[in-house]
Amino acid sequence: MRAQIGPGQSDTGTARSGATTNARPSPAPRRSLLRRLAVAAVTLGAIGAVVAGVGFVAFTTQIAGREPAGVKPADAIVVLTGGPSRIIDAVSLLNEGLGQRLLITGVNPATSSDEMRRALPDGERLMDCCIDLGHKALNTRGNALEAAEWTRERRFRSLVVVTSSWHMPRAMMELSRALPDVELVAYPVVTSRTEPENWWTDTGTLKLLVKEYLKYIMATVKIRPAQAVAGSGTVAAPTAGAAAASH
């Protein structure tokens, strides 16, 4: 005969079954949590994209669309290597008397003074009197350090800075940090590729600007390559008198 279950008793099997059923998590709260996380991620991503887009547009407003019609004279001129147009324009400014001396910073260590004499307009005369080659810089930060060392050694108080228009914002930032007491005059070099009307139609130019924008952000927060300079120091081209005395 089966014992009857009284009011104060419980069926063990039934209790266990109920406990097991109650312990199972409901799928509805989990799906709700995942949905909220997905919405939050999409929202943050959208906000980040908008901020990055606005920042990029603001960055492009700093890029000159035309080369300056006139340049304020300075004690000296510094050109950052990276394109032949930069050096040609810098030499032209030197010939026009807009600086007493020119530093070409970031020159390949394998490039000699004799090669530069042959390559530059009026190179023989200018290399003997007015142009110095800097071989230490490995990047834009290195350009700034190399230019700062050269500027202090010669006690210049103002510089005309020559580089590509898209590179100028970052170059001026690094130079102003390295030379806070020196007046910097920007001379952006503009090519047909980097004219504003061509930015949005040329995929290569757009990629270049986006890459430079990311480098500009990194420089702003001082995230840079560990090594900025290497090799020997700034190399000054000997004057004609010094060259004669050495023989």
Structure description:
It is a single chain. 51% of the residues lie in helices and 12% in strands. It is built from 10 helices and 6 strands; from the N terminus they run H-H-E-H-E-H-H-E-H-E-H-E-H-H-E-H. It has a 6-stranded mixed beta sheet, with helices on both faces. Strand 4, helix 7 and strand 5 form a beta-alpha-beta unit. Helix 4 packs across helix 5 and helix 7 packs parallel to helix 9. It starts with 11 loop residues before the first helix and ends with a helix.
What's the short version?
With 247 residues, the chain is of the alpha/beta class.
> What structural class do helix, strand and pairing data support?
alpha/beta
* Strand numbers in spatial order across the main sheet: 5-4-1-2-3-6
What does the main sheet amount to? 6 strands, mixed
Please state the average pLDDT score: 80
Indicate the overall shape. Answer: elongated
